[in-house]
Every structure is written in C-alpha cells, then in structure tokens.
C-alpha cells in the first residue's frame, strides 16, 4: 500500500506547534525563534514532508523561478558565477533557470515573452548585449526593477549591476609588464561592441599613454574571448616586422590560445613574448607555462547579484543598495611573464 505524503499538519503535530507556525518557519524563518526553527526542521526530517513550492507560489502569485542569461555556457568563465547565484538561491523559494543567449532559439523576443508571461519572477543577466528595445519593453511592462546585471552590463541602463573593477585590472596588467621592463605591449581585445572589451581596451591605452609607451595600430588585435581568436592572433604577431615583447589578452581563453599559437610559430613564452590574461579561470594555473592573469572573484559576482535580486523580490526599495557595486580584482603573477630579452 502506497504511503500518503506527509502534510503540513503532520509536521505541526510532530513539532507540537500550530500549522501557522510551521508555515512561518518554512517561508519566513526569521519570524520565528531559533528553537522553533530547529523543532520544525526536525519534524520535517522525521515526517518526510516536502514543501509544495508550486502551490505556495500560486497563492503568492509568483512563478517561483529566476532566469540567468549567459552569453556562452561553453565558456568556463561563467561556471563560478553560476555557482554563486545557485548557492544563494538554494535556500530560497526560487529555482534557478539558465538560458544561453548565444543559441539561435534564445532570441530576444522569446526571452522578453518568457518574463512578461510571468514564468519567471526576476532575471540576472551576465550578457551586456541586451538591446535597447528589450530593456524598454521590460520598463513599459513594470518588470525592470527585477533585473540585475552581473559581470557585463548595458551602458546607461537603469538596472543595478555587480561588476569587477575592470579598469583597475587593465592598469595592473600594464604596470606589471612595465615594471618587468616591457615597452612594446600589444593587446588582443574581446568582441566588438562588448562593454568589457571597451573598458579594458580604453584603460590599457590610457595607461600605456600615461607611461609614454609606443602606440602602434597593429598592436591592437581584434579577438572575441575565445581560444580560436588567441590562436589566430599568434600568427599575426609572429609575422610582425617589429614584434611586441608582451601581450595583454582580454581573457584567459584568448591568452591560452595565443600561447599555443606562438609555440607553433616557434616562439617561446615568456622568453620571446610575455602573455597576460584576464579572469583566472581554473585552467589558467595549469596552462604551460602557468598564466599570469587578473583574478576576478567570479563566485562573489554571482552571490552579490543574487543578493540584489532577492532583495528586490522581497520588496526592498531599489535605492537600498548602490546602483553599481565593484568587486575587487587581483593580479596573479605566474610563469607566462618575465623581463624581455633586451632588458
């Protein structure tokens, strides 16, 4: 005979409290004492009670889910950000859904409709490529206050964002290379139109100019955050009549691809060319040679973005937190950088 599932009444009897107290302990634990929370938690364990989130969310007129937009799930950079977001929502009433915006089926119209059809309660976007039309539609339909950007953002958009201090990171790279004795520093950018590409490139150029370093147009090479773009850039660098002695890459993936391509071209890192990345993804420390890079606290980017969205979903005012929150970055010096041969 199949055993009936435990009910909230079963939990209340086991804990010797009212059903209202059980409900408060499960949905708003801060409203009850620690002793009561422990009693209810133990009763839930003994009875095997499973909270029916769908029914509760229906009563609250909530979908019980948040959506995370990711530009490319295949890029290992996003793993720790997603882990941070998931960890924060694990003990909440909201499930986490993830959409890869690089896929053709995840077009802008579909994402807008998903939100406006009330299938999600809020959204964290790791993609700064959302269009002005999409953001305007969110605004017009009254859901703009439930959108948070993390890592990437849309310039001048009114939504809160949690981002790494990209400018500090770019300056730290140029300073590190300069202190090693490098004066011929190239840069492989991210994709055109990307906000991270812009700020890292602009800061790199400003710092290079401030230090009086030579500027050459062919020393700024277009990339797209991928291994392939770094590998392709290696052939261009190897063929230059006046070759840079160091390269600042807009991401670790680009840097690892570059190192591979330089090796194929007969150049050694760091003996012939020093290479610096940006992100400190897991494989950076295991590259050959280990990659000097800017460490982003990716998990913190995720947890703080989740905190922002949770606060809005719980009704806290938008001005309770700063509009822009910067997360510190750190230069991690490893084996891919060294003084130039002619230093």
TrEMBL record:
Tell me the superkingdom of the source.
Answer: Bacteria
Q: Which Pfam families match?
A: LacI (PF00356), Peripla_BP_3 (PF13377)
> What Gene Ontology molecular-function terms does this entry list?
DNA-binding transcription factor activity; transcription cis-regulatory region binding
Matches recorded under PROSITE patterns: HTH_LACI_1 (PS00356), HTH_LACI_2 (PS50932)
SUPFAM superfamilies per record: lambda repressor-like DNA-binding domains (SSF47413), Periplasmic binding protein-like I (SSF53822)
Domain HTH lacI-type, first and last residues per copy: 6-60
Protein's UniProt name: HTH-type transcriptional repressor CytR
User: Gene symbol?
Assistant: cytR_2
């Amino acid at each position: 005979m199949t055993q009936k599932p435990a009910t909230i009444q079963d939990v209340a009897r086991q804990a010797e409290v009212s059903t209202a107290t059980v409900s408060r302990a499960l949905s708003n634990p801060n409203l009850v004492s620690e002793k009561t929370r422990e009693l209810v938690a133990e009763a839930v364990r003994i009875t095997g009670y499973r909270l029916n989130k769908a029914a509760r969310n229906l009563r609250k007129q909530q979908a019980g889910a948040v959506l995370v937009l990711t530009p490319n799930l295949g890029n290992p950079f996003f793993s720790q950000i997603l882990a941070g977001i998931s960890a924060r929502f694990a003990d909440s009433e909201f499930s986490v859904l993830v959409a890869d915006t690089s896929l053709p089926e995840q077009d802008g119209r579909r994402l807008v409709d998903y939100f406006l059809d009330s299938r999600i309660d809020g959204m964290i976007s790791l993609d700064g490529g959302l269009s002005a039309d999409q953001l305007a539609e969110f605004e017009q339909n009254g859901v703009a206050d439930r959108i948070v950007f993390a890592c990437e953002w849309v310039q001048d958009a009114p939504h809160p964002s949690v981002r790494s201090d990209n400018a500090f990171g770019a300056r730290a790279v140029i300073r590190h290379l300069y202190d090693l004795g490098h004066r011929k520093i190239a840069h492989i950018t991210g994709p055109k139109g990307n906000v991270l590409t812009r700020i890292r490139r602009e800061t790199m150029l400003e710092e290079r100019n401030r230090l009086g370093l030579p500027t050459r147009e062919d020393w700024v090479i277009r990339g797209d955050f991928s291994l392939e773009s770094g590998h392709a850039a290696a052939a261009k660098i190897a063929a230059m009549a006046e070759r840079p002695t160091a390269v600042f890459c807009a991401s670790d993936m680009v840097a690892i691809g570059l190192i591979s391509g330089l090796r194929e071209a007969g150049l050694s890192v760091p003996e012939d060319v020093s290479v610096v990345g940006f992100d400190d993804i897991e494989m950076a420390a295991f590259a050959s040679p280990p990659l000097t890079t800017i460490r982003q606290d990716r998990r913190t980017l995720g947890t703080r973005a989740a905190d922002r969205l949770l606060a809005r979903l719980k009704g806290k005012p938008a001005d309770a937190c700063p509009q822009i929150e910067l997360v510190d970055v750190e230069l991690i010096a490893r084996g891919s950088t060294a003084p130039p041969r002619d230093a």
